[in-house]
């Protein structure tokens, strides 16, 4: 049997990882500044993470949600305390797409409405409704297209007012910082006005924190910079540091009913152990203030680069936008300098999503390599 060929792959085969590094099958060491799409939050093979999962696996790794699982309550309490969202309710699932799918479904249940407003360059997942709320028609199948989604420019207040006045919108879904879309970030005025408009029209506001959550921006959630209270918050990626975990935080104004949401694997014992380890390390190692310090150092170094148009993002969700496409540059970085970086739908943007434990010396290593790699790349 062959693999279904849907991924363009780099010719690198990692077999070991620790901290901010991975090693391939040939023993070559790579600096990981991408974390597998922002998934590695506390560093590869963190001792506290390994211990939590190993102990749990030796006890019980999985059972369904038909039984009591005190670890889920422990996750909810710890997550609420660290994030400042302790009055929310938690539903656990397995991925970011599943989190957004459940968020959209819940918003439709709560409002009795069918339509969603999303924003251009958004990415919310590849499942039924989440993929239609993703601004990429190439990944929307005909069976998905029956979902009702309206796209607006990110920042279009007047357009939002017009659409919400139709009173058929169940949810407005947004990323505080767009990930795949290229790290575009709306103004605080736009976010606060959106929240106010949603409230006045009975529409649920969904903050997609799948990539930006769990301390990546220096705040636990990126939306917290704007001082709003979303109805639903979706989480995943850095939540499990590599273990598949996702979830949604649900405002207490939304009432739970038996059977309205469900999952087989979501919130299993190992997933909870992974999440608890991440939360404990984020707190114990002060990784959120550390992310802000690393942002400042990164920006200081980046400003010295030639051909740099713009520095985008916050914390350790950062992007370097050049006046040329970065595809060749990324290949040079990985094959010649052994550094993983990320791209986006903005072909001129280099995305940096390292473990939150990254240090100054790793940023120095990146910029030294970047300056060398940029020679003759912009052609």
From TrEMBL:
Cofactor: pyridoxal 5'-phosphate
InterPro entries with a match to the protein in the record: Aminotrans_3, Aminotrans_3_PPA_site, Class-III_PLP-dep_AT, PyrdxlP-dep_Trfase, PyrdxlP-dep_Trfase_major, PyrdxlP-dep_Trfase_small
CDD domains on file: OAT_like
Keywords for this protein: Aminotransferase, Pyridoxal phosphate, Transferase
SUPFAM superfamilies on file: PLP-dependent transferases
Pfam families recorded: Aminotran_3
Gene Ontology MF: a single term: transaminase activity
Protein family according to the UniProt entry: Belongs to the class-III pyridoxal-phosphate-dependent aminotransferase family.
PANTHER family reported for this sequence: ACETYLORNITHINE AMINOTRANSFERASE, MITOCHONDRIAL, AMINOTRANSFERASE CLASS III
Protein name per UniProt: Aspartate aminotransferase family protein
Organism per entry: Sungkyunkwania multivorans
């Amino acid at each position: 049997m062959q693999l279904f060929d849907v991924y363009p792959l780099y010719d690198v085969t990692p077999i070991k990882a620790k901290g901010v590094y991975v090693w391939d099958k040939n023993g070559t060491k790579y600096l990981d500044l991408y974390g597998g799409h922002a998934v590695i939050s506390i560093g590869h093979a963190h001792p506290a993470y390994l211990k939590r999962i190993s102990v749990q696996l030796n006890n019980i790794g999985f059972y369904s949600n038909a039984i009591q699982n005190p670890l889920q309550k422990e996750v909810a309490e710890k997550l609420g305390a660290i994030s400042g969202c302790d009055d929310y309710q938690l539903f656990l699932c397995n991925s970011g797409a599943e989190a957004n799918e459940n968020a959209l479904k819940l918003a439709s249940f709560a409002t009795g409405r069918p339509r969603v407003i999303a924003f251009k360059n958004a990415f919310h997942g590849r499942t039924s409704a989440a993929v239609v709320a993703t601004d990429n028609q190439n990944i929307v199948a005909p069976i998905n297209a029956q979902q009702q989604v309206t796209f607006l420019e990110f920042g279009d207040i007047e357009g939002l007012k017009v659409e919400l006045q139709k009173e058929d919108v169940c949810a407005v879904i947004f990323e505080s910082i767009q990930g795949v879309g290229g790290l575009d970030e709306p103004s605080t005025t736009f976010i606060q006005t959106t929240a106010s408009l949603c409230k006045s029209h009975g529409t649920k506001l969904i903050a997609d924190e799948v990539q930006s959550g769990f301390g990546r921006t220096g705040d636990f959630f990126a939306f917290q910079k704007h001082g709003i209270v979303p109805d639903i918050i979706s989480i995943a990626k850095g939540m499990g540091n590599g273990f598949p975990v996702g979830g949604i935080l649900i405002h207490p104004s939304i009432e739970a009913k038996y059977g309205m949401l469900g999952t087989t694997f979501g919130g299993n014992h190992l997933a909870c152990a992974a999440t608890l380890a991440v939360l404990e390390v984020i707190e114990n190692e002060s990784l959120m203030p550390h992310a802000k310090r690393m942002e400042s150092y990164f920006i200081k170094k980046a400003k010295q680069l030639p051909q740099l148009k713009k520095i985008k993002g916050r914390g350790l969700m950062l992007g370097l936008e050049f006046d040329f496409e970065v595809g060749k540059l990324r290949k040079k970085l990985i094959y010649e300098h052994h550094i993983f970086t990320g791209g986006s739908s903005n072909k001129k943007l280099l995305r940096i999503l390292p473990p939150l434990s990254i240090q100054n010396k790793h940023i120095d290593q990146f910029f030294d390599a970047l300056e060398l790699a940029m020679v003759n790349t912009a052609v």
